[in-house]
Amino acid sequence: MEKHIPNWSSTKSVPDDYIFPQELRPGDINIPISHSIPVIDLSEAHTGDRINTIQKIIKAAEEFGFFQVINHGIPENEMKETMSVFEEVFQFPDEYEHNLYPDDSTKACKKFTSSYNYETEKVHYWRECLRHPAYPLEEWQHLWPQNPASYRKCVGDLSVKIKELGLTIMNLISEGLGLECGYFDDDLSGSMIISANHYPSCPNPNLTLGLLKHYDAYLITILLQGDISGLQVLKDGEWIGVEALPHAFVINIGYALKIISNGKLQSAEHRAVTNSSHARTSAAFFIAPTGDSFIEPAQDLIDEHNPPIYKSFQFKEFLSRFFVKHGDMEKVMKSFEEPDGIL
Q1: Measured by CB atoms within 10 angstroms of the end CB, which terminus of the chain is less buried, N or C?
Q2: Statement: the pTM of the whole predicted model exceeds 0.85
């Protein structure tokens, strides 16, 4: 079990197996926080300025693939309480959560260090992660951690509200794309996964990463970032820091949505850096299609002037290849072009 949960607090230097090759290291982690990433007030969509709100969302999704939302209707005290519960998860001794470790790959709820591939990966991420499905809630909640005792109710209550927020955002996006009302309802948004990530303080953040640059594979990610910044987005070949705004959610356009929009909306590469003075915890809520759903360019976005630039994929196959290729989306998409569809 020790190999999965290192004693971070007693680590005085970065172990060799956590040091990334020079070309992958974050370099100067003190990248200024960017104030150019759009912050969108969702309350405006309900007070007569819906069209303007939609235009802001579509523009942000086209230019950045990222934006933040405020006045989203989820109470601040619930966000803070849930973040405290996530933080507490990573403070429990190993023996309290023995059944969460990923020795059995079929387990729906897993707690691990670095990634699922800890045993085979060349370099480890400076993070711990708890990951599990969250929708439909009644199907998964009983498999969630029993410690802390408030986890299932607190996280469950917030996840219901975040699923509703996700549908609100997807309806605004579908309207902005010119798709029929409710296009993303049902199977196209019929799944949600929670990934709570804990990034311990690091003695030398320049050598390692909490997460290497990657795309998200889903429709959208709704990120509860907490009070400490550590998320960076690649924009025009430069890394920019995402501000940890109070009572805001970071929204990230996933690659599945880029495919459905036929490339109109962008999915941005992003990464997580560490720092030497503070641990950081964040929680990502991935709004996703069901596994049996097919993702493909929406028919209403295709015509003789805009032919489809993506094939149709069953989402579970797309996701399988995403994990096999370690999130390298170029390799994932290329694998579908192979004559025999090999991984």
Answers
A1: N
A2: yes
